[in-house]
Design goal:
The complex is a heterodimer of chains A (462) and B (246). With 462 residues, chain A is an alpha/beta fold. Among the domains of chain A are: 209 residues, NagB/RpiA/CoA transferase-like (Rossmann fold, 3-Layer(aba) Sandwich), CATH 3.40.50; 55 residues, no CATH class. In chain A, 51% of the residues lie in helices and 10% in strands. Chain A has 23 helices and ten strands. In chain A, strands 1-10-7-4-2-3 form a six-stranded parallel sheet, with helices on both faces. In chain A, strands 8-5-6-9 form a four-stranded mixed sheet. In chain A, helix 3 packs across helix 12 and helix 19 packs antiparallel against helix 21. Chain B has 246 residues and is α/β, with parallel strands linked by helices. Chain B has two domains: 112 residues; 116 residues, 3-Layer(aba) Sandwich (Rossmann fold), CATH 3.40.50. Chain B has 13 helices and eight strands. In chain B, strand 7, helix 12 and strand 8 form a beta-alpha-beta unit. The chains are: A alpha/beta (462), B alpha/beta (246).
């Protein structure tokens, strides 16, 4: 399928990724290891399934009353002294962040992990405005130095081997050539980032949870980098999608118990930091970003995708993601969840993603907020075809297939004319070569079909 | 009790032995089985590709063929799941709804409806069980490795009744094989890699046969095994449950 705006679709990029099979094995095993850690953490909690159900229902309730909770959050945050901004889309979000920095004459900013700013392409935008952004999450910093997007929402540089990270550090941070000792590389990054933390006047963080009843927000990190940035800077900007809300502080425990167990198998992130009011002389800004979320909220079949707490468990378990790599999705959020979120943002550009799945359903089973991801993938396929974004060749093939299958007479003739089924499927994709046969033998046609055997061996009921 | 035998199109065309074994197993269990000869396909290949709106004729045909039976049984978890989730009719929605409630995959029909407690089969081989995703996660034929819930497996229960059969363990007991309908050709590289990895798990654990309740997964893995010139064979679970070796 050709995808506008991209030169290659998921299948083509996955094919490239699979040219190096040992690397695919390594990528698959690395992520499967995390899936296994998640399993051990989940199985240590007997009420795990009830916890998932509770989280799912809290999110459902919140999304069903979103405007009310957003207004409650805004009022309480403002009462705490937080400055609240509303951004309808990515562009407005980027402009708001830029205007805050401009107002304070800031030209350098430190930023902890925020998938929303990846979605909005904030770094590129600020760079064009002459503002330098340094990502302080170690994985994010590594891909930033490599000039690559993150390939995973929780593990941004999971596609890189430690030797490759060593090369990047050698090039950019002056470590010894060939040095790939994780301890030394981490220490180098720590020293480099410490300098950044101490000299930046503005820090941007993401938001994991915003609590309507208190007007506070919670940021979860393992490295403490959000805290280092926010505490040392005069201005703290927190960017959040409007779906990050939960009603009460007492709901938070449900999500904190699920988030990191699902993400990495840890019981909780090292830091779960609450930000409620600015210190005297400091500013805290919250930017509430819609960017398509209210449209998704209006799509009944896809509304539940907004429950996502960005744990990445669906990526780690996805047999396709593990064997195609995050970059093959060409979306800030890759993997199964990205494949149901991205078409909402740009259906034409991301028309390939709902098809990058076998619909195996493992994603829905690990999801801590019980999003029916694989069912939504199926439903997106129907929408994309109806909206006319399917390959015309595929449409023709499907119509031909339907004609045969909906007529018993034609089906029998086709069957006798040479086991029609396997000949038809490859035709759907390409008539130059047969993708089935490239690495697989064809099934061997038997002497007779079951239908023929039945007529010979049992009485016909025709 | 009269059962309508639903044989998926590709099983009819390529794997008649799986269909014959299904028929014979049901007959041995004392069930009256009828195979409606005008059946073609459940429409899943179109629907999973995003063309569910084209499947109306297939659906109507399915309703005409199967509405009359007490149960509909098929040796394919995937096709059964499709019928359960997506069979509708503009003219006879009541019949379509009834069919959605009485269509069964063979294994679950044997364990849950017929309540088979013993078989007379013998199959003296090492067998690896491939859990198809639609059978397992869709129909609930076995507990899913992701869920914190008690273990069970309907296909394993039946295989344990087969004399001299040795069921081998797997490193990843319910990972997808990568067939995925038109995914197998549209995403050829990933599909094949998934299939190779699944086959390798069975080979590492010395399987002589790979079995399962979905012939489509097995067809995909068979294609890979034969390309590798492996001696390991695939065989539908019905054929093993109906086997009378030695």
């Amino acid at each position: 399928m050709s995808v506008e705006g991209h030169t290659k679709d998921h299948a083509a990029l996955a094919d490239d990724f699979n040219q190096d099979e040992p690397r695919v094995n390594w990528h698959d095993e690395t992520l499967w290891f995390i899936r296994e850690k998640r399993d051990r953490a989940a199985f240590a909690i007997p009420d795990w399934e009830m916890l998932r159900e509770t989280a799912s229902q809290i999110k459902f309730h919140t999304l069903s009353n979103l405007s009310q909770y957003l207004e409650q959050f805004e009022a309480n945050a403002q009462a705490n002294g937080i400055i609240v901004h509303w951004a309808a889309d990515a562009e407005e979000h980027n402009q708001i962040v830029h205007s805050i920095l401009q107002k304070h004459g800031v030209t350098q900013m430190v930023k902890s992990k925020s998938m929303l700013t990846e979605e909005c392409h904030l770094n590129d935008y600020l760079e064009q405005q002459g503002i330098e952004v340094i990502d302080s999450d170690l994985g994010e910093r590594i891909v930033q130095l490599a000039k690559e997007p993150p390939s995973h929402i929780v593990l941004p540089c999971i596609h890189l081997k430690k030797e490759e990270i060593g090369d990047i550090f050698h090039q950019h941070l002056g470590t010894e050539a060939g040095m790939s000792d994780p301890q030394i590389l981490t220490e180098t990054a720590r020293q480099h980032l410490r300098e950044t933390f101490l000299t930046r006047k503005a820090a941007l963080t993401g938001v994991n949870f915003a609590i309507a009843e208190t007007g506070e927000f919670v940021v979860c990190t393992n490295e403490g980098n959000a805290d280092m940035g926010a505490h040392l800077a005069d201005i703290h900007i927190a960017s959040m999608g409007i779906e990050k809300l939960i009603p009460r502080r007492s709901d938070l425990g449900v999500f904190l118990r699920l988030l990191t167990r699902s993400a990495t198998g840890q019981p909780i992130t090292t830091y779960s930091s609450h930000f409620k009011k600015p210190r005297p002389g400091h500013d805290v800004h919250v930017v509430l970003v819609d960017n398509g979320r209210s449209v998704q909220l209006g799509r009944e079949d896809f509304r539940n995708s907004l429950k996502c707490i960005r744990c990445g468990a669906c990526m780690n378990t996805c047999p396709v993601y593990r064997r195609s790599g995050g970059h093959s999705y060409q979306s800030a959020v890759a993997g199964p969840i990205g494949s149901i979120l991205a078409p909402n943002l740009d259906m034409k550009k991301h028309a390939d993603l709902p098809f990058a799945s076998t619909l195996c359903g493992s994603c829905s089973n690990v999801c801590p907020v019980k999003i029916d991801i694989h069912n939504q993938l199926y439903k997106w396929r129907q929408v994309i075809v109806k909206e006319g974004y399917a390959d015309p060749k595929k449409t023709l093939g499907m119509k031909a297939m339907n004609m045969v299958l909906s007529s018993p007479q034609t089906f029998k003739l086709s069957g006798k004319a040479g086991r029609w089924f396997m000949k038809t499927v490859p035709f759907l994709v390409s008539n130059k070569m047969n993708p089935w046969y490239k690495q697989r033998e064809m099934p061997q046609p038997p002497k007779e079909s079951f239908g023929e055997w039945y007529r010979r061996n049992r009485k016909s009921n025709e | 009790m009269t059962v309508g035998l639903f044989i998926p199109c590709y099983v009819d065309q390529f794997y008649p032995n799986a269909a014959i074994a299904t028929l014979e197993l049901l007959e041995k269990a004392g069930v009256n089985v009828v195979y409606p000869v005008r059946q073609t396909c459940c429409g899943q290949p179109m629907a999973n590709s995003g063309f569910e709106h084209l499947t109306k004729d297939c659906n109507e045909l399915f309703v005409q063929n199967f509405a009359q039976f007490d149960y509909i049984v098929s040796p394919s978890g995937s096709c059964v799941l499709h019928v359960k989730d997506h069979l509708h009719s503009d003219t006879h929605e009541d019949q379509a709804q009834a069919i959605r409630g009485k269509v069964y995959e063979l294994v679950e029909f044997l364990t849950d409806v017929v309540k088979v407690e013993k078989l007379t089969a013998r199959f003296p081989h090492k067998v690896g069980l491939h859990q198809s995703c639609h059978g397992q996660r869709g129909l609930g034929l076995a507990q899913m490795s992701e869920l914190v819930a008690p273990a069970f497996s309907k296909p394993e229960k039946l295989l344990s009744m087969v004399q001299d059969l040795e069921l081998i363990p797997l490193s990843r007991k319910d990972e997808c094989c990568g067939f995925g309908g038109t995914f197998c050709v549209a995403e050829e590289a990933v599909s094949v890699k998934m299939g190779k990895d699944r086959v390798a798990d069975h080979l590492q654990h010395e399987a002589e046969f790979i079995t399962g309740a979905d012939m489509s997964c097995l067809m995909h893995m068979e294609g890979i095994l034969r390309r590798q010139k492996s001696k390991v064979k695939v065989m539908h679970i019905a054929e093993i449950l109906n086997a009378q070796e030695g």
